[in-house]
Write a structure and sequence with these properties.
Number of domains: 3
Bound molecules: zinc ion
CATH superfamily of the largest domain: Collagenase (Catalytic Domain)
Strand content: 15-25%
Organism: Chitinophaga ginsengisoli
CATH topology of the largest domain: Collagenase (Catalytic Domain)
Number of helices: 9
Protein name: Dual-action HEIGH metallo-peptidase
Helix content: 10-25%
Distance between the termini: 52 Å
GO molecular function, one term: metallopeptidase activity
Keywords: Signal
Number of strands: 19
CATH class of the largest domain: Alpha Beta
């Protein structure tokens, strides 16, 4: 993806500055003396605007060292004004996009056992799956089939409701980012509804797809996260402001969450991930070993979106048991099964695609 020319200018300025600092300033500080007391807020603010973490800033006389090995001269900061990237309040996306289109979201027990959060997640997946892109979002209750994203309840600083990683970049711990963090205690303290939590989840999922805040530029948000360059690229086909976007930076509690993706949010995801081929999968949400009581009950497709019908097959080669079902209702009632080893298979058909068959061997004890 191409970055805007203005951003390229900023990148070139960085490069020039670092080279210049290394040539001129380091040699003057052969025995640098750390002097943290004297870091002026005006420098910290500028360094942060440049996209570096202010907690990483170390001051040595005439230079700052950030992120351990990047040198910025005070003189540079004194004269440097962040170029305004013609802020225009438009949709933008990160440099990298997802390299796969079936996204398995691990939904652990604290999520699925909480009806408010479960229905919020279900609705967010349904919304993204209905957007018309080539992305398919799945809810998985087990990890034995692998997963791509994880949902984690945790405390986040200040008034942060949620946080997520951009595609292709390591997270704070340096491993490939795939986490959506949700500040459940704060959300509960605010008394947000399931629809409002859906809005937050839809927003965080947007980041995981590479969508920036639509108001990132007027907010002066940096182009890096956790020390890694994210990039910001306007969509050439979205040339208007979008106050109804789910990708606005701030959530207003007066927003009831009844509307999630705006028409331009949908255009954005369809531009990044156009539906030009069909690669729909589905997954079976049952552990590979279950008791007979756990095996029966309702099974839903992992894909949470509009479907035309769903097919199920359950076979037991030892006994010759064979059960099939084709239904437009996504609730599949698993028949009562005697202990044994069964192969569960399922396939879904949507308006655009027929999925491949999913298959899982399940032992019923
Ligand atoms: Zn955000």
């Amino acid at each position: 993806m191409k970055i805007t020319s203005s951003l390229l200018t900023v990148a070139l300025l960085f490069l020039f500055c670092f080279v210049a600092c290394k040539k001129n300033d380091i040699s003057q500080t052969a025995t640098p003396k750390e002097d943290q007391e004297r870091i002026d807020e005006k420098y910290l603010a500028k360094i942060e605007k440049l996209g570096f973490k202010r907690s990483s800033v170390r001051c040595y006389d005439s230079i700052f060292v950030v992120e351990n090995d990047i040198i910025i001269a005070k003189k540079f900061l004194d004269t440097f004004h962040i170029p305004v990237v013609n802020p225009n309040d438009r949709h933008a996306h990160s440099d990298q996009s997802l390299s796969f289109n079936n996204i398995r979201i691990y939904t652990s027990q604290p999520w699925w056992s909480n009806s408010t959060y479960y229905s919020a997640l279900n609705r967010a997946l349904y919304e993204w799956n209905s957007a018309g892109s080539n992305l398919n979002f799945h809810m998985l209750f087990q990890t034995d089939q692998g997963y791509d994203w994880n949902l984690i309840f945790m405390s986040l600083p200040g008034t942060t409701l949620g946080s997520a990683d951009f595609p292709g970049l390591p997270d704070l711990n340096g491993v490939p980012g795939y986490n959506i963090l949700i500040n459940q205690n704060y959300i509960n303290a605010l008394g947000l509804t399931s629809n409002q939590i859906s809005w937050i989840l839809t927003h965080e999922m947007g980041h995981m797809l590479g969508l920036r805040h639509t108001d990132w530029d007027i907010n002066g948000e940096p182009n890096s996260q956790d020390g890694y360059y994210v990039g910001a690229n306007y969509f050439p086909n979205i040339t208007v402001q979008d106050p109804n976007s789910v990708m606005r930076a701030a959530f207003n509690t007066s927003n009831n969450g009844n509307v999630l993706l705006s028409s331009y949010d949908k255009l954005a995801v369809n531009t990044l991930y156009p539906l030009n081929s069909c690669n729909l999968q589905t997954f079976i949400n049952r552990p590979s070993v279950v008791s007979s009581g756990e095996a029966s009950g309702t099974l839903y497709p992992s894909y949470r979106g509009p479907i035309n019908f769903i097919e199920w097959q359950i076979t037991n080669s030892a006994t010759g048991y064979n059960y099939t079902s084709t239904d437009s209702d996504i609730e599949f009632q698993v028949p009562s099964l005697a202990p044994g080893t069964y192969v569960f298979k399922t396939r879904i058909t949507t308006a655009n695609c027929v999925s491949s068959w999913a298959s899982k061997t399940i032992t019923i004890q």
